[in-house]
Specification:
Elements (H helix, E strand, L loop, with lengths): L3 E6 L10 E6 L12 H39 L6 E4 L4 E7 L3 E10 L1 E2 L2 E2 L6 E9 L3 E5 L3 H5 L1
Antiparallel strand pairs: 1-2, 3-4, 3-9, 4-5, 5-8, 6-7
């Protein structure tokens, strides 16, 4: 049983001539055992978090890993002459390949003399840029560059 604390009994309506003391009981507080029913409750409290990670994996992480795998296969399959779109929307034709870099031909220009085009090989200028292979976003069907010009 708990310890008794005495406090004065007061009644605001009827004042007593002498204060009387009455006992107020305070129950003792005991710590809970770390074993028992609390173990299953803690497991059940983690169940929603575990379910959220499962849903997150199947809705976000797994599809992203699949896209990365497809992009890597596309980059590995690049060949000279492929028409591609690079990061930033640059459209070009693959002219050179190395292990880490791709050279894209993005423009060809011919110089004109007196309003006539010259078919001379020296008069043609090719504009090429070098990019990392990972900057290639998409491989286009053959003839796309001519169709959009």
């Amino acid at each position: 049983m708990g310890a008794a604390i005495l406090e004065p009994l007061t009644n605001p309506v009827l004042p007593l001539p002498a204060p009387e003391l009455r006992p107020v009981l305070i129950s003792s507080a005991y710590a809970q055992s770390p074993f028992g029913a609390a173990g299953t409750e803690s497991l059940m409290s983690f169940l929603p978090i575990i379910l959220m990670f499962g849903v997150l994996y199947f809705l976000m992480i797994r599809p992203q890993m699949k896209r990365q795998k497809e992009h890597k296969q596309m980059i590995d399959a690049l060949a000279k002459g492929d028409e591609v779109i690079a990061a930033g929307g640059i459209v070009g034709k693959v002219s050179k390949l190395s292990d880490a870099y791709v050279s894209l031909e993005i423009a060809r220009s011919t110089t004109e003399r007196n309003g006539e085009r010259s078919n001379d090989r020296n008069a043609e200028h090719v504009v090429e840029i070098q990019l990392q292979r990972s900057a290639i976003q998409q491989v286009l069907p053959k003839g796309t560059i001519k169709a959009i010009q």
